Amino acid sequence: MKIALIIFISIIAIVLIYFFYLGYTSQTGTANGIVNSKLTPCSKKPNCICTEFAEDNAHFIEPVTSQSTSINNVITAIETTGGKIINTRSNYIYATYTSRIFRYVDDFEVRIDAENKLIHIRSASRVGHSDMGANLKRIEKVKQILGDIK
């Protein structure tokens, strides 16, 4: 019984150390930015959501349709949901979100398409395979706030 408890606690400790290590490794890196006038497509891993590529059913969500594509409104929505703005340009915002416990860093990018009155968003985890729906929830929160700002 004592040996089983020691093994169990050791396994839990190893798993926790691994998760903290992933959080540490996610501290470095950056998003790819705009490539060919669009946000970067998601990789095959399920830890990314993007509004740019409708043909990618596994990672696609509808973009924000807005008469007001103000960059300031988008910045407000990102900061309200806990994002940290890293870089902005006239039609692009790069921000990061950091999880509370393991300190995982996720990249969050926005491309404003003023011509078509669309706001495209890409949210992706830097490490790991699954995000347990965190990126989708984040985009939905930002979309909701943008809808409320109208």
What descriptors fit this protein?
150 residues, two-stranded antiparallel sheet, single chain, 8 strands, alpha+beta, TATA-Binding Protein, 33% helix, 6-stranded antiparallel beta sheet
Number of helices: 3
% residues in beta strands: 25-35%
Compute the gyration radius: what is it? 18 Å
Give the biggest beta sheet: 6 strands, antiparallel
Annotated CATH topology: TATA-Binding Protein
Please, what is the average pLDDT?
A: 90
Rounded to the nearest angstrom, the distance between the terminal CA atoms is: 62 Å
CATH class: Alpha Beta
Shape: elongated
**CATH architectural grouping:** 2-Layer Sandwich
Spans of at least 5 consecutive residues with low confidence? none
Q: Write the CATH homologous superfamily.
A: Kinase associated domain 1, KA1
Structural class: alpha+beta
Roughly what percent helix? Answer: 25-40%
Secondary structure tally: strands? 8
What is the helix/strand order?
HEEEEHEEEEH
Number of domains: 1
Structure in words:
This protein has a single domain, classed as TATA-Binding Protein. It is built from three helices and eight strands, in the order αββββαββββα. It has helices at about 1-25, 70-80, 135-150, and strands at about 35, 40, 50, 65, 85-90, 90-100, 105-115, 120-125. By secondary structure, the protein is of the alpha+beta class.
